[in-house]
Task: inverse folding
């Protein structure tokens, strides 16, 4: 049965993240291979002018249309999906800050008024929020800027964990690989699950990850600002295989347990116990991805003690099990031993300052 071609508009602006722009269209383009007719999506790139836009990677992209053309009489055709990518700046301490230029926000707000649904890619959620499109809605973004989104826009219910969230006609996605999942979800909504699964196979992706699946590694995002916390974090990394307690960490830092908890909450936004479990999970993730070590071995070398404790931590932190995680994200054959105690949270793919990148499975 023939489908009506749906217009997808991707917003461009100086400094936009390149993968945010190019990732989703790959999903939409593959749709044509998997349908019996030429219908599907028509993707156009829109910017303030048709001059080339320089992305964050330095690659220049030529827009197809201007915002005025889309908003004017000549562009009266309604937009099916408005896709808003993001951009960031990184300070001298490698902290990531999402950008939302007022001129871009105004254009997005205007275009959203004639759009069936609005989606954001990664930190593009900050632009949607600035345009008031996320007020009163649950939304996600890349874990590295989730706190900023919540702080800048208190009317938005920020959930940093899921890979994408749908709130009515507004969709928000996490990192770039997560937004491939979001794009597949859009295809499934428009053309059915069967077609979406065929597209996923073309992408060699893990088929249909649920939107509620964790971004993985979120708890390790905060960056400390004091030498004392950095020393503690390195101490934890070196001794993850040992039964560390809050009292042990307090003794190492020469403070009381109560003071240590206060310091962790102020510096990292979590308790020492939460951070310690997050570090253990991150170490276990690396072992599951790159080694053939048994769950018993991983539980021991990562400080969980028992496989039951390891499984409970994975369910609590990642909403999956160690076995399921290994099946989905195993990257390459590795040694048959878990990582040595010298490794740490920063060595995982989603350590501080890095995106929670996953092999396109994914996550």
Result:
């Amino acid at each position: 049965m023939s489908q009506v071609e749906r217009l997808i508009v991707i917003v461009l602006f100086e400094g936009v993240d390149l993968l945010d722009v190019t990732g989703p269209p790959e999903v939409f383009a593959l749709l044509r291979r998997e349908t019996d007719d030429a219908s599907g999506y028509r993707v156009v790139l829109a910017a303030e002018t048709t001059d080339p836009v320089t992305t964050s990677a330095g690659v220049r992209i030529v827009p197809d249309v201007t915002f005025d053309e889309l908003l004017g009489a000549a562009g009266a055709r309604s937009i099916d999906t408005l896709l808003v990518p993001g951009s960031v700046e990184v300070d001298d301490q490698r902290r990531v800050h999402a950008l939302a230029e007022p001129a871009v926000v105004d254009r997005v707000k205007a275009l959203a008024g004639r759009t069936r649904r609005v989606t954001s890619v990664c930190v593009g959620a900050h632009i949607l929020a600035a345009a008031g499109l996320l007020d009163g809605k649950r939304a996600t973004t890349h874990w590295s800027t989730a706190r900023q989104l919540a702080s800048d826009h208190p009317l938005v219910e920020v959930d940093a964990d899921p890979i994408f969230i749908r709130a009515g006609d507004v969709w928000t996605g996490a990192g770039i690989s997560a937004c491939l999942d979001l794009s597949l979800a859009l295809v499934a909504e428009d053309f059915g699950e069967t077609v979406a699964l065929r597209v996923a196979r073309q992408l060699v992706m893990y088929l249909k990850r649920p939107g509620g699946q964790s971004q993985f590694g979120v708890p390790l995002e905060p960056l400390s600002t004091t030498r004392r916390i950095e020393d503690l974090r390195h101490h934890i990394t070196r001794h993850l295989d040992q039964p560390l307690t809050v009292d042990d960490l307090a003794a190492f830092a020469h403070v009381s347990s109560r003071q240590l908890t206060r310091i962790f909450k102020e510096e990292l936004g979590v308790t020492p116990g939460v951070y310690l479990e997050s570090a253990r999970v991150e170490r276990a993730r690396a072992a599951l991805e790159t080694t053939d070590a048994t769950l018993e071995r991983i539980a021991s070398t990562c400080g969980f003690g028992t496989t039951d404790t390891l499984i409970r931590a994975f369910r609590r932190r990642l909403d999956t099990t160690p076995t399921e995680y290994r099946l989905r994200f195993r990257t390459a054959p590795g040694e048959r031993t878990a990582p040595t105690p010298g490794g740490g949270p920063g060595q995982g793919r989603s350590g501080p300052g890095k995106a929670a990148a996953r092999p396109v499975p994914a996550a």
